[in-house]
Amino acid sequence: MTTGKVTLLSAGPGDLDLLTIKAAKALAAADIVLLDDLANPGIVSLAPQARVIRVGKRGGCKSTPQAFIQRLMQRYALKGLHVVRVKGGDALLFGRAGEELTALRRAQIPVEIINGISSGFAAAASLGISLTHREHCQGVTFVTAHKQDHGEPNWAALAATGTTLAIYMGMTRIESLCQALLSALPALTPAAVVQWAGTAAERCWLGRLDHLAIDAVKEGLGSPAVILVGNAVGEAVNWVTHKESSAFAVAEQTSFNAWQDNAEAVAHAA
Amino acid sequence: MTTGKVTLLSAGPGDLDLLTIKAAKALAAADIVLLDDLANPGIVSLAPQARVIRVGKRGGCKSTPQAFIQRLMQRYALKGLHVVRVKGGDALLFGRAGEELTALRRAQIPVEIINGISSGFAAAASLGISLTHREHCQGVTFVTAHKQDHGEPNWAALAATGTTLAIYMGMTRIESLCQALLSALPALTPAAVVQWAGTAAERCWLGRLDHLAIDAVKEGLGSPAVILVGNAVGEAVNWVTHKESSAFAVAEQTSFNAWQDNAEAVAHAA
């Protein structure tokens, strides 16, 4: 059995201060770093002695095939090296970690997993809300809009749970997903988009579900972004009026106007 | 306006190495630390200059009332101090952060939120699985079994999403929740319990949904624990046979037996 190993390392949303201490230690000890597209490239400064190989694999773009990444990990680990596979967010959420773990187990290569902050959590922090405010919901569902067979998730079933929805990889099909959600949820359901959550480039849109598809795109928000939908998101309104972060500057006024409309419409409906 | 501020700090699942670097920096700069029950008490070593106040609030037990915790935060922040409110896991998931944020905003006290690793992620890492294996599901739902009005979540609706279920605070009502899930999901659905995920005291049970209520309790597993249910959990079987972690020693053999039963039953059914 090899003395090498693979660490599946979660790089979090981007801000290097949002790495765990455990992740920083693993990077410092790495021989090989396989770097994902969505991870902050500055992370390599924490792995000064490692050979860095970029293996970006963004949906739809030219990319390193998954099978090749898996072969790379195995090749270096079987040479006795410590391979750190860096993934954006938390490696265990939408990260193809399942397939990598299976391949590494088959090759009898020891694997360590280091958790991180998924961008849905960073998005909620940016909006100043809890993902699960107990007056509004009992949970949160993290779902990808991008299915393996190119179909859509069952949006009606997801809406029926009453949980906050944190939708990843949804910006390229925002129209169809909003349409599907609107057939199951009230038009006034609070909604938000946070692009580049947890990075210096972070931008937000905040409003209501029936404005989401048009207004968030009009604001210029695109991938990578997390879309949040649900009554817990409504708690963000007070926060936006107080928050002074420059990240909010772009979308703030429009968002707040949308919010005022929303509040007024709810008041009229009541 | 006060020069004080409050940091809602996510302490992660317990292992201090799973704190973010940002959290460690905030603790080092804290004047007051308000410490939650579920956070590792060793965390105070990272806040050497802070006054530490323990404000545990475990479900059902004798505890510090939420309103009192909020008053404490405000009082110290309004004195110009940097108050760090330490919460287990990620503060934005089942942590009453929503209420605390509202109260702090009303008092015009600046708030910073620092994300952390929620125990559901640590549980998946411990089992060596992705929460969302794309061959099995499009997402994961984090849900608390403990509703504000003491009712139950809509388990049938949750099951209908096809997402992995990560159930928090479920051990005290495991029988009723398993019964409800079994009316919506196949008896052979893979299930797991991870108690004290991401700590040195971590213990796991791994099996199938129809054995969960009896066997996990028979193994002595109780709160605090995360219950994982869904086909993505089935990927854990190979891992358990390879993993050498002592944390698995207690439950491993029983779990593996349960798994073999499961695999055989599935084979017979096919």
Give a quick set of tags describing it:
homodimer; 270 residues; alpha/beta; Cobalt-precorrin-4 Transmethylase, domain 1; Methyltransferase, Cobalt-precorrin-4 Transmethylase, Domain 2; 2 domains; 5-stranded mixed beta sheet; 10 strands
Commentary on this structure:
- 2 copies of one chain form a homodimer.
- The longest helix of chain A has 21 residues, at 249-269.
- The relative contact order of chain A is 0.14.
- In chain A, helix 6 runs antiparallel to helix 7 (209-218).
- Chain A has 9 helices and 10 strands.
- In chain A, strand 8 (190-195) and strand 9 (203-208) form a beta hairpin.
- In chain A, strands 3-2-4-1-5 form a 5-stranded parallel beta sheet, sandwiched between helices.
- Chain A has helices at 21-28, 66-78, 97-106, 119-127, 155-160, 174-182, 209-218, 236-242, 249-269; strands at residues 5-10, 32-35, 51-54, 82-87, 111-114, 139-144, 164-168, 190-195, 203-208, 225-229.
- Chain A has 2 domains: 5-114, Cobalt-precorrin-4 Transmethylase, domain 1 (3-Layer(aba) Sandwich); 119-269, Methyltransferase, Cobalt-precorrin-4 Transmethylase, Domain 2 (2-Layer Sandwich), CATH 3.30.950.
- With 270 residues, chain A is an alpha/beta fold.
- Mean pLDDT of chain A is 86; it is low at 241-270.
- In chain A, 34% of the residues lie in helices and 19% in strands.
- Chains A and B meet through helix 1, helix 3, strand 5, helix 4 and strand 6 of A and helix 1, helix 3, strand 5, helix 4 and strand 6 of B.
- Chains A, B: GO terms for molecular function: uroporphyrin-III C-methyltransferase activity.
- Chains A, B: Its EC number is 2.1.1.107.
- Chains A, B: Belongs to the precorrin methyltransferase family.
- Chains A, B: This is uroporphyrinogen-III C-methyltransferase.
- Chains A, B: It holds the Pfam family TP_methylase.
